[in-house]
Amino acid sequence: MPEIPTLKTNVSLTSEEALQLFKEADFARSILESSSDCIEVLDLGGHLLLMNNVGRTQIEIDDFALCLGKPWTDFWEGESRDKAVAALEEARAGRKRNFEGFCPTLAGVPKWWEVIITPIRRADGKIKELLAISRDITDRKQIQDSRQVALGVAEDAQAFAEAATVKANEARVVADSANLVKSEFLANMSHEIRTPMGAVIGLADILALSRPLTDRQAEYVSTLRISATSLLALINDLLDISKIESRSVELENVPFSLGKVMGEVVSMMSIRANEKKLAFTVEDRSAPGARFMGDPMRLRQILLNLCGNAIKFTEEGSVRVTLSSQLIEGEKFELAIAVADTGIGIAAEKLASVFDRFVQADTSMSRRYGGTGLGLTISKTLVELMGGTVAVESIAGKGSTFTLRVPLQLVPASHPERSARKNEEPAVAPEARVLLVEDHEPNILVESTYLEMMGIACDVARDGLQAMEKFALRKYDLILLDVQMPSMDGLEVTRRIRAQEKLKHLPRTPIIGMTAYALAGDRQRCLDVGMDEYISKPFDPGDLKAKVLAFVVVR
Ligand code: ADP
After folding, report:
1. What per-residue confidence (pLDDT) applies to 25?
2. Coil, strand, or helix at residue 498?
3. Based on the domain organization, do 262 and 402 belong to the same domain?
4. Residue 456 lies in a domain
5. What is the pTM (predicted TM-score) of this model?
6. Residue 224: pLDDT band with limits 50, 70, 90
């Protein structure tokens, strides 16, 4: 048992009394020494009277005499001292109190303690001393602190991530609106360019059919048409890319004949292949004559791109197109079209990137072969929108094979045919009359000439108001209506015509909308307001003829 030192300060216990206390409490003292916590006895003034050995070790007290009678609250530091003072006060008043506090060892090692301080009630019920039991919680506190730090770091990181998300969203909004502005700009530009191009191509077509033409003149007209058409193709590619970027490409889902699409591709491509003295062959192992649901214009566009490239990059040999189909389920087929050439091929390291935007396998080639590097990106996107794939195999110097695979649904037997007449030139009713609503003079010339060549008489309205006046005066077999017109556009004209028909119980006049705007959703917007058909300008004369004759023919 340690020697009991003499009390040095103003303590309410003499050394004899303290010794007595120890003797009386001999057993209790053994219990106290068995505890793993620091146990202290204080007088009511808060002076340290006793401390067990565990506590002395924990607080690194070598000489307890130096601490005896010292105010207990002096051991505590900072805010912990205030807590110790308050707890002491409570215990003095007879209440138990606990707190967590910071009290370094005498050697200065930082330590945290969980303290319970209670009054010691003697047998007579009086309180003369207080008992403080302190447990070392430094380890727990450090874990808590590091958790807190980690939590703080995590919170900071989260706050940072949230701020970054907000910034990213703001940037996206800016980018989206910039993208929208760009898409609108491109759509406007394309409208502005397509409108005069329509007139150039249309007049070249009309001139080509005019007689008499010398061979020289025919050549001029043909070159004029080819140049205008390739310029238009370029504009269409740029517009397609802008639509792809703004994710506004729309596909049609109409019945079409695969044979007809291939026929058009062959007739356009054979001329080019002949010019280069290449054999251009098509082997159809699919279901020739079958009609599928899908977007024939886009399928044709993809095939023209693949075949056009094959011819462009082949100097001698052949371009071979092979079609095959395989039943997937029910009436659904997978159509595979392989376009194989014996051309320059693509180097292995460039193969993966040819479908990327603006990529050309050899940039020095672009001047030799022309092109923009957009065609394959557009084709790939369109094929993927159709639910299909496009792949390439190539050996540099030997040739390339592009293979397109798309799932296609057979046209259901119950699907109504657009025109009952097939393979037979429909007869136009002699008295048939069309109202042409168009504000652009060169287009009026082209469109009215096309109608004239079909044997159809037309009245011309140069704006929406004139259209309404003419519509009120007589019944037309068809209205060919430009969509973009100043003051009253084609959509508004259609709405008013449909409203009047309803009001006056008039028979429905078919309306074909014409637009050079080519914005996503144009077609649907036209159909939604009550148009019956839609044609995008500049139109293919055959397409215009087919669509017009579907309405004005004698049935
Ligand atoms: P463009 O033909 O306008 O350059 P594409 O996107 O259609 O753009 O083609 C991208 C590139 O892929 C071409 O520039 C060419 O380098 C390569 N390529 C495409 N098809 C073939 C082919 N059949 N043979 C060789 N190279 C090809």
Report:
1. 61
2. helix
3. yes
4. yes
5. 0.57
6. confident
